[in-house]
Amino acid sequence: MKIIEVSAKAIPDSRKEKTISVLIKTNVGEFSASAPNGKSTGKYEAKSYIKNLDEDIKTIKQLGEYFSEESVEKFDDLKKIEDICEKQIGANSVFALESAILKALAKEKKKEIWKIIQESFEAGKKFPRLVGNCIGGGKHSDIERKPDFQEFELVPDVKNVETAFELNKKAKKETERMIKELDSKFSGQKNDENAWMTSLNDKEVLEILSRTNLPIGIDAAASGFYKRKKYDYQNPKFKRDDEEQFGYMSNLVKNFNLFYVEDPFDENDFESFAKLLKKFPDRLIVGDDLTTTNPERLKKAIKMKSINGIIVKPNQIGSLIKVKEVCEIAKKNNVRTVFSHRSGETDETILADLAFGFQADFLKCGITGDVREAKIKRLIEIERGMK
After folding, report:
1. 140 and 15 in one domain?
2. Which residue among 45, 98, 151, 193 is the active-site one?
3. Using H for helix, E for strand and C for coil, what is the string for the chain?
C-alpha cells in the first residue's frame, strides 16, 4: 500500500478539548483516525505533541513526501513510518497516523484490522473481559467534595462481551439508586468518563459497589495525590506515609474483596507494588502511571515482581510497534494486558481491534456514553463475526 498524501486537523474530544485527527490518501482510498487525550497522565508518558498540536499538524503535512516513499504491506512495516516520525511529531499524532494506515491496509487486503495485527503477533480468539468505570473521583470528577480514588470499576467475569456490557449497564443503574440513598448532594451528574460523580468517600463507594454482586476494583491513581512523600487524602482529610498507604490498601483489598487494583502507589514506588502483589497474588495488581506502556518500565516491574497486570494505552507511548513489544513481554512473563481508553475520547473505535488483535486480557473503556460504548460495540461486532 502506498501513501499518497497526509494531512491533519484539530477536532474536539469528549471533554471539548482539542485533539488530533489524521487523514491519509492512499491507492485504495482515504482513511482517517483520531487520538484521545489523557487527563491523569504519568510522569513517564511520551509527549502528546513535540511542541503543540498546531505544530504537529504542520509537520505531518511536511512529512508527507517521506511517507510516500515507503510501502506498507504488513503491521511491522509501521516501523518505517515511526522512523520518519521520530522526534518530529508527538505520541498522539503518531497513534492517529498509524491507526489510519492500519485502516487503509485492512481495506487493501480485504481483512479486518485485528487480522492485520494477528498476522504479526499471534492468532487467537480470546475476548477481553470488560473493565467499566462506574463511579469516579480524583482528577476525572470536577466537583469540590469527591472520592480520592479516580475510578471504581466493575469487572464482570463472563466470557461473552455483550453479556458483560449489559451486566455493567444494569449494575451502573442500580448504583445510581444506592448513591441517592447515601448522598443528599447527588444530582445524577457524570464525570469525564461518564461515571457517576458523588461526594461520598472511597469506602462508601466501595460499599455500594460490593452490593452489585460483580467483581470490583479501583484505579487509585495514587500519584495524583502523592505530595512531599505523603498520600494527601481530602475526603476525609488524612495524610498517609508509604507504610500507612500500604496498610490502607491492603485492608481495602481484603475487606472489599477487590479483584482489580490499579496504581495503588506512587509511580516510582515499584517496591510497594511488589509487596502488595506478594500479599495478594490472586488479585490483579495493575501498573499504569508506573509503567506507561513502556517496554523498559515493564521489564523493571517484572524484574521487581511489582505487577501482574499492565495498562496498555497506545497513545501513551506513541508507537504501535512498542505496543506490540509490550504485549509480547507481558505474555511471556504472565502479566495480563488491560487495553485502555483515555478520559478525553473520540468516536474512534480502533482500540477494540487492537485489544482483540493483541489478545488482551481486559478492555477498559467505561460503561456508558457514546464514545465509550462505540468501542465496546465494535468489540461485540468482532465477537458476533467470529460465530
Report:
1. no
2. 193
3. CEEEEEEEEEEECCCCCEEEEEEEEECCEEEEEECCECCCCCCCCCCCCCCCHHHHHHHHHHHHHHHCCCECCCHHHHHHHHHHHCCCCCHHHHHHHHHHHHHHHHHHHCCCHHHHHHCCCCCCCCCCEEEEEEEECHHHCCCCCCCCCCEEEECCCCCCHHHHHHHHHHHHHHHHHHHHHHCCCCCCCECCCCCEECCCCHHHHHHHHCCCCCCEEEECCHHHHEECCEEEEECCEEEECHHHHHHHHHHHHHHCCCCEEECCCCCCCHHHHHHHHHHCCCCEEEECCCCCCCHHHHHHHHHCCCCCEEEECHHHHCCHHHHHHHHHHHHHCCCEEEEECCCECCCCCHHHHHHHHCCCCEEECCCCCHHHHHHHHHHHHHHHHCC
The pTM of the full predicted model, rounded to 2 decimals, is 0.97
Lowest mean pLDDT among 3-17, 26-40, 258-272, 312-326: 26-40
Spot the catalytic one: 313, 322, 364, 375: 313
Q: Which structural domain, as residue segments, surrounds residue 213?
A: 129-385
Q: What type of residue sits at position 338? A: V
Confidence check: pLDDT of 207 > 80: yes
> Tell me: the pLDDT tens digits for 101-150?
999 999 999 999 999 999 999 999 999 999 999 999 998 888 999 999 99
Looking up residue 89, the CATH number of its domain turns out to be 3.30.390.10
Q: Can 244 be counted among the known catalytic residues?
A: no
pLDDT at 40: 66
Residue 289 phi, psi dihedral angles, 5° rounding:
-60, -30
Residue 313 is a catalytic residue: yes
- End-of-domain residue from the set 57, 83, 110: 110
Instruction: Let me know whether 105 and 151 are in one domain.
Output: no
End-of-domain residue from the set 110, 145, 168: 110
Measure the CA–CA gap between 132 and 125, rounded to whole angstroms: 22
- Of the candidates 387, 381, 379, the one whose C-alpha atom is nearest the C-alpha of residue 128 is 379
Q: How many domains does the chain have?
A: 2
